[in-house]
Design goal:
This protein is an alpha+beta fold. Helix content is 33%, strand content 24%. It folds into 2 domains: 152 residues, 2-Layer Sandwich (60s Ribosomal Protein L30, Chain: A); 168 residues, Alpha-Beta Complex (Phosphoribosyl-aminoimidazole Synthetase, Chain A, domain 2). The protein contains 10 helices and 13 strands. The protein starts with 20 loop residues before the first helix and ends with a strand.
């Protein structure tokens, strides 16, 4: 394979490319309201995927996600992009069923690179027990790849981000920092072991985490996955939809190896900086808080973990790390401790 580094072909990479939450809300505000009673989850509420009722005991879940390269290895890029897209199905409590690929590549890009991207996506889909059965490609100056994924769920067992209750513990299943690592990679300033740790996290399906949550039954009150808006941004959406405030314990947040040092050196992508600015509107950061940890808490994640609101008293040791709790108070307000 020949050609430039994949990350050099795009202005940004991974979920840090997402349109800022406030900008997106403005763009969507003029769209007509969805009134179809079969739509169980749609544009309202910032859910991770759409859910449409088919029969009394069957609903389909649909989501789409794609982005520009976050790493240079084409197989790994495809694998990360597909893993990220499938995650939204798991976040709704659903089982993936099938996927379609979405791709855009420069006309002069080595075809072997494109084949490797496709192969990485197929490998991730296979790990989720599904096939990529088709898709659509265009010629594009910046490489892009992702999936449209369909899943199934019982209508009574949908996980939403709106079911959290005061007292719920907030559990995060993956460490943070992929946006910062990816930004350092673009500058050629990341150690191999640090990059390997981030890649391992981003290529890990949330399948096992979802299975462990399912084992808790009704004790799982709300679920979302942490991606482009960062932990603080996605927690804000969950707390707002649940009518709760939240407390986030910075010291408890799990970090990828080497991320703190990279953040201190300034390798923070623009999307993460925008997340931090947005968080100032709905969050209160305690005086004297760790500024570096606060930055990482707002870092735009790619293929991040599941964030779940779990009823108190349940054993959550196998689920991940407890990073805070929901509480009574102004909906969506976060105290960052």
């Amino acid at each position: 394979m020949t050609g430039p580094r994949l990350t050099a072909l795009a202005g940004g990479g991974g979920c840090a490319c997402k349109v800022a939450a406030t900008d997106l809300a403005d763009l969507l505000r003029s769209l007509p309201t969805v009134s179809d009673p079969r739509v169980l989850a749609g544009p309202v509420g910032n859910e991770d995927a759409a859910v449409v009722l088919v029969t009394d005991d069957l609903a389909i879940v649909q989501t789409v996600d794609f982005f520009t390269p976050i790493v240079d290895d084409p197989f790994t890029f495809g694998q990360i992009a597909a893993t990220n897209a499938i995650s939204d199905v798991y976040a709704m409590g659903a089982t993936p069923l099938v996927a379609l690929a979405i791709a855009g590549f420069p006309r002069d890009l080595d075809p072997d690179i494109v084949r490797e991207v496709f192969a990485g996506g197929a490998a991730a889909a296979s790990g989720a027990g599904i096939a990529i059965v088709g898709g659509h490609t265009i010629v594009d100056a910046e490489p892009k790849y992702g999936l449209a994924v369909t899943g199934t769920v019982h209508p009574a067992r949908i996980w939403r981000n709106s079911g959290g209750q005061p007292g719920d513990r907030l559990v995060l299943s993956k460490p943070l920092g992929t946006g910062i690592v990816a930004n350092a990679l673009r500058s050629g300033s990341v150690a191999d072991d640090v990059l390997a740790g981030a890649v391992a996290a981003m290529t890990t399906l949330n399948r096992e985490s979802a299975d462990r949550l399912h084992a808790l039954g009704d004790g799982v009150h709300a679920v979302t996955d942490v991606t482009g808006f960062g932990l603080v941004g996605h927690l804000h959406e969950l707390a707002l939809a649940s009518g709760c405030s939240a407390r986030l314990d910075l010291a408890a947040i799990p970090l990828l190896g080497g991320v703190r040092d990279l953040a201190a050196l300034g390798f923070v992508p623009g999307g993460s900086r925008r997340n931090r600015e947005a968080a100032a509107v709905y969050s209160a950061f305690r005086s004297g808080h760790d500024v570096i940890l606060a930055t990482i808490a707002c870092d735009a994640q790619t293929s991040g973990g599941l964030l779940a609101a779990i009823a108190p008293g349940l054993d959550v040791a196998a689920l991940g790390v407890v990073v805070g709790e929901l509480a009574e108070g102004t909906p969506g307000r976060i105290l960052v401790d």
